[in-house]
Specification:
The complex is a heterodimer. Helices cover 46% and strands 10% of the residues of chain A. Chain A has helices spanning 2-13, 23-30, 46-63, 74-87, 102-107, 114-120, 164-167, 170-180, 190-207, 224-236, 262-272, 287-295, 306-314, 336-341, 364-374, 380-387, 399-407, 411-418, 431-447, 452-469; strands at 37-43, 66-72, 94-98, 151-163, 301-305, 325-328, 350-356. In chain A, strands 1, 2, 3, 4, 5, 6 and 7 form a 7-stranded mixed β-sheet that branches. In chain A, helix 1 runs parallel beside helix 3, helix 10 (224-236) packs across helix 11 (262-272) and helix 12 runs parallel beside helix 13 (306-314). Chain A is globular, with a radius of gyration of 23 Å. Chain A starts with a helix and ends in a 5-residue tail after the last helix. By secondary structure, chain B is mainly alpha-helical. Chain B folds into 2 domains: 1-32, no CATH class; 66-299, Orthogonal Bundle (MetI-like fold), CATH 1.10.3720. Chain B has 13 helices and 2 strands. Chain B has a two-stranded antiparallel sheet. The chains are: A alpha/beta, B mainly alpha.
Chain lengths: 474, 300
């Protein structure tokens, strides 16, 4: 919080130096819209908080356009944005577009074509802003003709986080070797992950420490667990695109899909078998709680979203494990890394989102200015440090970012060098409906009410039913 | 329009004029949405579909599907079970508390004030409070139960615990409403029958059974109806505490409809669910009303 306040104060006093040295242009461009209030809705994440508390205030000081960013829960964000766009009520001038929902929004023509909008209004084109500065993550927010419908504001990979201090303890190493017959190390295979998890659960208990062997994002009533399985666990076992056959939109093995195939079942078995070694809150944990659990020192290793990785590793006000965090790629099944490297697969989720303008917005021109301000290079480094996200190619080379990268065991470097191995969600316009059909089966598998095999057999049938209902199977 | 007709042909035009804003608002916020939902319920409509338009496939299309929808039917049964259980406990506890509050005891006003507090808390906040209190790893309750009784509370894993946790939450939230309503009814009862009964030598149990309960039937009917209708449509607290899980364990009909409509975007099917559930609620209430009224007549 202290860092955020300092950033706000510093940025307000230095706003004239901001805007990539084009402060006069911003003042002039914003003058016709001075006093306008732009309403936005986004998920309450560290990058979202930075946008609302720092960048929006700079923008207002410079242009006179006020930005009210409503950072709320993931569920509420979708609920509010979609209802507003469906009803065409125009409450929000910009909305957060999560990477996995963009195909739905584009399919329903919710969003303004930003490329076209700027081309038609040359006066609104800000100097120093180029869409070419973005990493390839911006491609997720383009349509077939390459036009941009969302300005990326966060992008990060899901990494394997582990506790260097625990893995480095001499007594732990000796005990592990005597029990398992090989050396204690961060997991590079799923068997090793399981052994580590089992070992540290017992080791921590023996040492009187409140920690467990692994995180599990296993909420039994929230889609976070389905996402964890479909976007992180399953791809690392070689199951891509939810196991849906992209040619016929079938997901059951008997119809050409893979959702109840061997890889999927191996993945779900592996994941559910980690539960005895996870903190007791695992079955009520979404991505936020997993980050908090790890930051509180309650897990030795785990899959953690990158937006949390940086602050867990560096922010001593919020994290009890600063300086003790190691970052690596998660383990993968044989062949998966090769497939990912050749573009025929992926090892995990490249998460992130963008700000887009709904057609219903009543202040499209002023919002175009705001989105371009978001895209300026000036604040990218501070934003990366505050939110663990990088959307611009040059940000990786910034001195401040490199310093944090060192503290965070090379998290940013890892994202730069291996980001191509990750992928966003598959291009399903029926994303929400499909995931909603799978949810109860994943919940049941986690709660032990179904075996992983039963759950995936049921899930693929439910998903196939949805795709048939919605007309995707022809 | 109806208002206008009454206004034109009524002898009491001033009264209709004064009522017309209220009637207009009721039509706009009550009848129009109802008929719209009824209308949408006849269509196959999901904006995520290849064809996102509303398609009419017969009046019974969605309703036929619902009759064979195990998850929906199970959610109705779950909601009814939940309502019956909570109603039983809330009525029993509420009656005991209301009778206690009729008598004098030290700090009675303070107790009554504290006891009423849950009523002023929004359902979503009640869900949050219970979550913070009971969530594994963070909440104090699982620790206390484990440390002192060796009992593991983990409703993310245990379906029965999840169901009963929501029952307890609902009882905590709504028993004060039952208490206050019954207290108002008890305070208004005439004293003559009690005095006559005491003179005739009736004991407290007989007085309660043969005088208090029969005289309280109208109040009880009101309380039962309000609580029954409320508990059948529970959403907020459940959404916050368990999200409907684990699995389907706490997926009550309100939650199920919400997930179908807002997560999966089945607008037509979800509308049909809402209408069917409304119909079932009305039938349950009508049956209950008929039973209670006929029993009341028999006792007279």
């Amino acid at each position: 919080m202290k860092k955020l306040i300092i950033a706000v104060v510093a940025s307000i006093f230095s706003f004239s130096a901001m805007a990539d040295g084009h402060a006069d242009w911003w003042k002039k461009a914003g003058a016709p819209y001075a006093g306008t209030v732009l309403q936005g809705v986004a998920e309450n994440t560290p990058p979202g908080q930075f946008a609302g508390e720092v960048i929006a205030k700079e923008f207002e000081a410079l242009t006179g356009i006020k930005v009210q960013l409503e950072n709320t829960s993931w569920d509420q964000m979708y609920d509010k944005a979609i209802k507003d766009m469906e009803a065409n009520s125009g409450i929000y001038d910009f909305v957060y577009i999560e990477q996995d929902i963009v195909y739905d929004y584009l399919n329903r023509d919710f969003l303004v074509n930003i490329t076209e909008g700027l081309a038609n209004n040359p006066d609104l084109q800000a100097p120093g802003v180029s869409l070419d500065d973005f990493t390839t993550f911006i491609d997720y927010f383009k349509d077939g003709s390459g036009d941009v419908f969302g300005i990326p504001m966060e992008a990060f990979i899901k990494v394997y986080l582990y506790r260097k201090d625990l893995f480095g303890r001499a007594d732990a190493k000796a005990q592990f070797r005597s029990q398992y017959g090989y050396g204690l190390a961060p997991a590079t295979s799923f068997d090793q992950w399981r052994d580590n998890a089992e070992f540290f659960t017992h080791f921590c208990a023996e040492q009187g420490m409140e920690c467990w062997g692994t995180t599990v994002q296993g909420h039994t009533g929230h889609p976070a667990s389905t996402y964890e399985f479909l976007e992180s666990i399953a791809p690392s076992f070689g199951l891509y695109n939810w196991g849906v056959n992209m040619d016929n939109y079938q997901s059951c093995v008997e119809n050409g899909g893979q959702l109840n195939g061997g890889r999927a079942k191996a993945a779900l078995n592996f994941w559910t078998q980690l539960l005895p070694f996870a903190p007791p809150e695992a079955l009520q944990s979404t991505w936020s709680e997993v980050g908090s659990s790890f930051a509180a020192g309650r897990a030795a290793q785990g899959w953690v979203y990158g937006e949390n990785a940086a602050w867990i590793a560096t922010d001593a006000e919020k994290s009890a494990v600063v300086g003790k965090v190691g970052v690596m790629l998660p383990p993968t099944a044989p062949g998966v890394m090769t497939q990912a490297a050749s573009g025929n697969g992926y090892i995990g989720y490249f998460d992130g989102g963008a700000y887009g303008i709904p057609h219903s917005s009543k202040n499209k021109e002023a919002t175009m200015l705001w989105l371009q301000y978001v895209a300026l290079n000036d604040h990218q480094a501070d934003w990366a440090i505050a939110g663990g996200r990088i959307t611009h190619k040059d940000t990786y080379a910034d001195a401040k970012v490199m310093a944090v990268d060192e503290q965070a065991d090379g998290y940013f470097s890892l994202m730069r060098d291996t980001g191509f191995l990750y992928a966003g969600a598959p291009p399903f316009p029926f994303h929400g409906a499909g995931r909603g059909a799978i949810d109860p089966f994943i919940y049941s598998a986690l709660a032990g009410e179904m075996t992983p095999e039963e759950a995936l057999d049921g899930a693929c049938q439910a998903l196939d039913q949805v795709m048939a209902d919605l007309g995707y199977q022809g | 329009m109806l208002c206008l007709l009454f206004f034109m042909f009524s002898n009491n035009r001033n009264a209709w004029l004064l009522l017309s804003p209220t009637i207009l608002i009721l039509i706009i916020v009550g009848l129009v949405p109802f008929f719209y939902v009824l209308y949408v319920g006849f269509f196959k409509w999901n904006p995520l579909a290849v064809d996102p338009s509303m398609q009419f496939e017969g009046f019974g299309f969605n309703y036929r599907r619902l009759i064979f929808d195990d998850v929906f039917l199970a959610s109705i049964w779950r909601s009814i079970k939940f309502s019956v259980v909570t109603l039983f406990f809330e009525l029993s506890l509420g009656f005991i508390l209301a009778l206690s509050l009729l008598s004098s005891f030290p700090l009675k006003s303070f107790f009554r004030g504290v006891h009423t507090l849950p009523l002023v808390i929004a359902p979503i906040v009640v869900g949050s409070i219970f979550k913070l209190f009971t969530v594994q790893g963070l909440g104090p309750l699982p620790h206390l139960l484990k440390d002192y009784f060796g009992y593991t509370l983990n409703y993310g894993l245990n379906a029965d615990q999840a169901f009963w946790m929501i029952v307890i939450m609902d009882i905590w939230h709504w028993t004060p409403f039952v208490t206050l309503t019954l207290l108002a009814g008890l305070s208004a009862l005439p004293q003559d029958p009690y005095e006559s009964a005491k003179i005739d030598g009736a004991n407290n149990f007989q007085i309660f059974t043969y005088i208090t309960i029969p005289m309280m039937v109208p109040v009880l009917i009101v309380v039962i109806f309000i609580r029954l209708m409320d508990s059948l449509k529970i959403v907020d607290e459940v959404w916050m505490l368990t999200g409907g899980g684990p699995g389907y364990a706490t997926r009550f009909t309100g939650i199920h409809i919400w997930k179908e409509v807002f997560e999966k975007r089945y607008y037509g099917l979800g509308s049909a669910m809402s209408i069917l559930y409304l119909y079932i609620t009305i039938v349950i209430c009508w049956l209950l009303y008929s039973v209670m009224v006929s029993r009341g007549k028999n006792e007279d």
